Amino acid sequence: MSKLPRRTYLYFAAQSINLTTAVMSVTMSAIVGSALAPTAILSTVPYGFQFLFVMLATYPASKLMSKIGRKKSFILGSLPLALSGCIGFFAVENQNFLMLVISHSALGLYISFANFNRFAATDNVDQTLKAKAISLVVAGGVIAAAVGPTLTEILRDLGGFALFSLCYASFIGLAALSLLIAICLPKDLVVTKEEQNKKIASGQGKDLYTTPIVIAMAVAALGYGIMNLLMIQASMHMKHTHESFSDVRLAIQWHVFAMFAPSFFTGNIIQKIGIKNTICTGLFILLGCTVLNTGASNYAVLSLSLILLGLGWNLTYVGGGALLSQSLQDHPFAIQMQGKNDLAIAILATIGAFTPALLLSTVGWGGTNIICMVLCALLLVIIYIKLNKGTHALCSIERGRK
Asked: What pTM, to 2 d.p., does this model score?
């Protein structure tokens, strides 16, 4: 098989909707939060709760998928997005901070299901195409980068409604599109209990936590956590330096393009230079971003560092996902392990969402970047030591893509 199946493009469309909601939420959540919150320090709490609910729901979502299948789970997962839109509209129109928190929590529930689009696209796909399948689905963020900020800008102040209320209402329409795509997905291949037991008996149920799998989870989680932390704090830092909303929005939009545009090529990059080199390149780019941030903090430098932040995230996120997918292959508990992987990502992303204001007020912009710099350097050392010791395990995976 040399071509990706048609369903991959359905997952691409579904992921485009997922990431559009994510881009819209990061563009407006801190602004709406600061307007509705009783104190400034609580302004990022709604966005933090969004990631908290992603964290809480991710593993249960994977368990549900392993029981009722991907298709039915994605259908159910679209419902919280509609709920988020309804509650968010009400919250902004009535200046209700608690309802805003609930809206973002419901959005987190939806995202916890939708994040599995990239792994669902690799189900029953040839080993040589798994990295490309993940890369293509993640590339849905390019659509999100164009649609999300534009939709936010158009609906932000329209028709006499409260600022941003229609942005939340648009989630209802996006939920309807997500539901339609899920309905169009092919039926899941049923794996009987007997077949699963045969796989476990043959040894495929062993070695869940091999070195490549642990490395894959660590890279994707840390890369996501650092990206979330620096992205949110950068927007706050730019606001403190009196940049306009349009300038902040433009910088974030370029960052989002940098996050997802490389995905059209990341699969090919992985095939040419290997998963380990792809991951290490991503971490080096994240390091470069933090060095740039500690050296200067004008708007041009911040915009460039946000682009580097997006590029580094892409290589660590797609590279980590590809390493995990190829390591698991047709493991009988692959979906649960994908859930644990996304749980690890959600935990660090939640920390990255809750701590920007706290870190900015304590250690400052420079101190936050130094912390991230140290974490990236430590992970690079660990990868070099561990993957060199477990070279035979990684090589067997690398051979699977040739």
From this structure: 0.81
